[in-house]
User: Fold Corrinoid adenosyltransferase from Neogemmobacter tilapiae.
Amino acid sequence: MVVLSKIYTRTGDKGETALGNGSRVAKHALRVTAYGTVDETNATVGLARLHAEGDLAEALKRIQNDLFDLGADLCLPDQDKDGELPYTPLRMIAGQVDRLESEIDAMNARLTPLRSFILPGGTPLAAHLHLCRTVSRRAERLAVELAEGEAVNPEAVKYLNRLSDWFFVAGRIANDEGKGDVLWVPGLTR
Assistant:
């Protein structure tokens, strides 16, 4: 259980922060930027939830919890500062990715195929889901970049990849199951 009795610690006043293993890194370190962007994604999901109801609201709540798991995964390198972790770390698992895929498939089955790219927008919920999509894509790019130089759980990267797809399809669902999608018209203002 987490107990937060004091919010500020002053330990980051010189531009460093602690990772989950106790090691200290610059606040602009790629690992910190990656899990910080996952946190930003989570905040955008919170905004989307203000407009969601029923099954979609429940799915977004599950995703917010997953994003905390994902942040915990990314903030913890494979070892602690002394070489080994004294506990089993929380890591993303294939089942979380599989659940997103199942939900994407179920939502997509309700939609007609796209014949054009769509513009972010439509209903307030759809617009927020498109914002979630773009922020989660940025988190994915950062996690992929981090994985080029450090150990990153592959399921974390897969989750982020599926998540942005989930937000795209959910945005279409929020636009009257695609009937309210705003279609891109190439060269419209030429």
